[in-house]
Structures are given as structure tokens and as C-alpha cells.
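INFO batch 0412 | record 1 of 1 | parsing
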Amino acid sequence: MTGPQMTGPLAGQVALVTGAGSGIGAEVAARLARDGAAVGVNGLTEDEVAGTVARIVDGGGRAVPLVGDVSDAADAARIVREVDEQLGGLHVLVNNAGLQQETPFLELDLDTWRAQLSVDLDGAFLMALEACRLMAPRGGGVVLNVTSVHEHQPRPGYAAYCAAKAGLGMLTQVIARELSDSGIRCLAVAPGAIETPIQDDRTEREVREQEAGIPAGRLGTPAEVAALVAFLVSPAAAYVSGTTVVMDGALEQQVSLS
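INFO prediction complete | emitting C-alpha cells
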């Protein structure tokens, strides 16, 4: 589905957002479209991404659904090929697709470990690899990886998730260093606690307790993350590369004396 091309700081560019059916990914896709980009909207099923595509098109933007599993090498290659063919290029990749599952370390088995790393780390690697192979000969582009504060901050019960996000943070730095001569910027955004569907099963008391541990006193919103992503992938941030920008209401600065 496409609509008329919009104007804005990303006018004339094509962006691909993975895991864009809901939460942060959906907001990022909508914000990039509002800033002028044509957007490839990735998810596992057509139904998953239909709402995001419709939201963009109804707002006057251009968007196409790109169904596939980013952790599958063949799917990753096809998704990048399709966005190039359907929207006429690829200038921005936002690796947002992710999987998070709480499992105590002593109960963690290899299948559970691999399932999370396959999406959170392997998927981002495969998508970045295919996107950069397309971007490099064409003068460059931007790869932005959505990591987490748990790229830096350990969280009991989430060994696989933390390890994947830490690995993605280092992968971000290596890509930035290695491909800068090709005109490719690579950077990451590390959100803290954000109001996404993953929070829906928490009780009001649990949410209040969580907010009490955040110096800002609240959870962030997907729209706030999307605004930061939109700036970082825009020409205004052309000198920002090889780093992770933390967005967590000062959560990482919280010092516990207990």
C-alpha cells in the first residue's frame, strides 16, 4: 500500500522497521513516515502489520507490509530485497524486532537461550548485513539498533535477553567503525521501562513500584522513543555514530544503598 510522498527531514528516503506491528516499532514506523520517509513495515504476519501500514497510509504516507522472520537468513535477504524493489531503495534500517522471556538462570536451557538470541542478536545481525550490503555501494545509509538499558545493566532472570542486547551494542560499534568509509552510520537507542504491550500483564501496584525506582517517576512512551530514533536517523544527526543513546529517565543512574 502506498500513499502520496510526504515532506519532512526524511523526505525522499526509504526506511525499514522490523517488529513494527505494535509498541515501539509501530510508533517508530509511523514517526518516520510523518517525517517524510516511505516505510517498509516488518512483522511475522500480514495481520500483525496491517494496522501500522493503514495508520501510515491514512496519514498520507507511503508504506508496504514486509512479512518475514528476521532470524531466518533467507527471510532477511528477501525482506531487504522487497523493500528495495517496492519502495525504490533503502536508506534507514531500524532493527527493533525482539523477544524477551523471563527464566531463572538455573532453569535456562539451550533452546530457550537460543530462541532469544536468534531474534534479538542474530536477527539484527542478518538484517544489518543485508541492508549494509545494499547501502554501501550506493553511498551509505543508517542502521539503528534498538537495544535496552540491559545492554549495560544486568537483570536477574533475563540472562539471554541481557546477553543478546550487550552483544548488539558491541555489534553496533563494530559496524560503525568498519563501514564508516562506506558512508554508513550505525548507532543504537537503549530504552528503559517503556509503556508497551509487554507491560500489560503487570498489576497497578507493580507498575507503581516500577515507577518509584525510576528517577523520572514514570515509564517512557513509545512516541518518545520514536522521536529520538527519528532525530538520530535524520541528517541532523549526521555526526552521531558508533554509540548507544540511553533513554531511561535516569534509571541507570539510580543508586541503591540497600
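INFO post-check: Residues 130 and 249 are 34 Å apart (CA to CA).
INFO record closed
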